[in-house]
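Q: Hi! First time doing this. I have a protein sequence and I read that you can turn it into a structure. Is that right? Here it is:
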Amino acid sequence: MRITYAILGLLLSSVTFAQKANNTIIKANELYKKGDVKNAEAVYNEALKIDSKNTAALFNKGNTLFKQNKYNDAVKQYQTTAETSTDAELQAKAYYNKAVAEIKQQLYQQAIQSLKQSLKLNNNDEQARENLQKLLTEINRQKQQQQQQKQEQPPKEKPLTKEEAAKQLEMLRNEEKRLQKEIQQQKNKPSKNEKDW
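A: Yes, that's right. Below is the predicted 3D structure, encoded as structure tokens:
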């Protein structure tokens, strides 16, 4: 009989514990809806202090970080949500949002992986599929532009070795000597100023 009371007491305390976390999340959600994302983040943190594995608080905190342009922190938060949750739908949403935050940071390869992960969990998500296709198309376009720019640039001349520089210098000296010799010969030639009678 005593064991039954202990188990019942544990169940009631865990229900109270979860209820307190959920009430805190509701308060944070209201702040988020009003656009007060900074305070909403603080309240989600309070909920996570009560229940560190609460996936709703984890996910929503990621959303507040994203709205504050803290994309790197949001990526980490969504990753934690996906790893903590056992709900495939929530995991898919977390990976999708993670991909969007990675795109904002121009981390395209990571975003592709996150979108693929999202589609593995929810292959009916057309928005994830469309964004993956757009991202792959954009990456291919950028690669083509880079290749085109490389082709348009003239090849860079490699620097001369000491031997090549010495040869070119010697050729220039010889050409200068030849030209000076030619000029001297023309000066030394007598001019023919014959008068025509």
